[in-house]
Amino acid sequence: MALERRSVPVTAIVSSRNEGHLLDRCLRAVEFCDELIVIDVDSHDQTAAIAADHGARVVQHDFVPIAEWARVTVAPQARHDWLLVVDPDEVLPAPLADRVAELLASIGDDVAAVDAPRQYYFRRRPLRGTVWAGRTSAGFSCGGRPSSSPRRSGEA
């Protein structure tokens, strides 16, 4: 299924501090989301301009040392219950975007979070033997309620 741009009722949230050079790839990968929010955490580069070029709503935020601190203040502003949180250096594969759209069309009201497998890379090689090695899970949540223990099992 080829997704139309901005067709899935999900808000993608990206926190960035001076990572404008990474935003183009990241935001192109989540353009299937109906709403894009980029949290500009006191950047001094082109983060806000690049985000705006992608139609994202840019929310300025004072410096915080941990991106999650900014996200929890901005997540309640999202238009949709379902949130997809990605970092500027992450690119969501198109097949996973398709799967998200399929899943949301049939997901029950009792599900608050969904996990998907994640593989970290360095210089185009998968990381192994480090704290970031192997497949871990990433997810999206409903209603701004991040969950470390989602109720839905299986790969997205």
Q: How is this structure best described in words?
A:
By secondary structure, this protein is an alpha/beta fold. The protein has a domain at 8-109: Spore Coat Polysaccharide Biosynthesis Protein SpsA, Chain A, CATH 3.90.550.10. Helix content is 24%, strand content 30%. Strands 3-2-1-4-8-5 form a six-stranded mixed β-sheet, with helices on both faces. Strands 6-7 form a two-stranded antiparallel sheet. The longest helix is centred in the middle third of the chain and has 13 residues, at 94-106. The model is unreliable at 144-156 (pLDDT under 50).
Architecture per CATH nomenclature, i.e. the level-2 architecture of the domain at 8-109: Alpha-Beta Complex
- What's the total number of strands? 8
CATH topology of the domain at 8-109: Spore Coat Polysaccharide Biosynthesis Protein SpsA, Chain A
Indicate the CATH class of the domain at 8-109. Alpha Beta
